[in-house]
Design goal:
The protein has 145 residues and is mainly alpha-helical. The chain contains nine helices and no strands.
């Protein structure tokens, strides 16, 4: 139980750091090479819904900061594209089938990554997750009706 509490505390600290865009932008390599890929791994291996949500929320918040502060840094762009395709996209099906609000965060992040061309439609087709994208959207529209 103590390890779980330590894990939750660590995620809460990371969540607080993710609120500070200047901290993230001063250490982009640390976040793109260490934190973001680790969050995807932690999400995948976690049974606790709150912990999974925090992993995705931190990933989402940090990615939003990087997307909003686009620079001419070609290496940074390549790393964001790699994270998008290697860490986020393969998890997408699990994310949209998870408990609320995880699917909405996942959908929002997917749309942003497509808008910024870090994920291409061909990437989605390659992983054969188009059907899940539409099923998720169909589920949302049926709930709203």
């Amino acid at each position: 139980m103590e390890a779980r509490d330590d894990f939750q505390i660590t995620l809460r600290i990371l969540e607080s750091v993710a609120d500070e865009s200047l901290v993230i932008l001063k250490s982009p390599d640390f976040f793109t090479r260490e934190v973001l890929p680790s969050l995807a791994v932690l999400y995948k291996g976690n049974k606790d819904g709150d912990a999974r949500f925090l992993c995705l929320k931190i990933l989402f918040d940090v990615m939003v900061i990087f997307l909003n502060e686009q620079s001419e840094d070609e290496q940074g762009s390549k790393e964001l594209q790699s994270i998008s395709n290697t860490n986020f996209l393969p998890l997408y099906c699990s994310l949209i089938e998870d408990e609320d609000p995880i699917p909405l965060y996942a959908q929002k992040l997917l749309v942003m990554l497509i808008d910024y061309i870090y994920i291409k439609i061909a990437d989605i087709l390659y992983l054969k997750i188009v059907l899940q994208c539409f099923e998720f959207l169909l589920g949302i529209s049926q709930v709203q009706m």
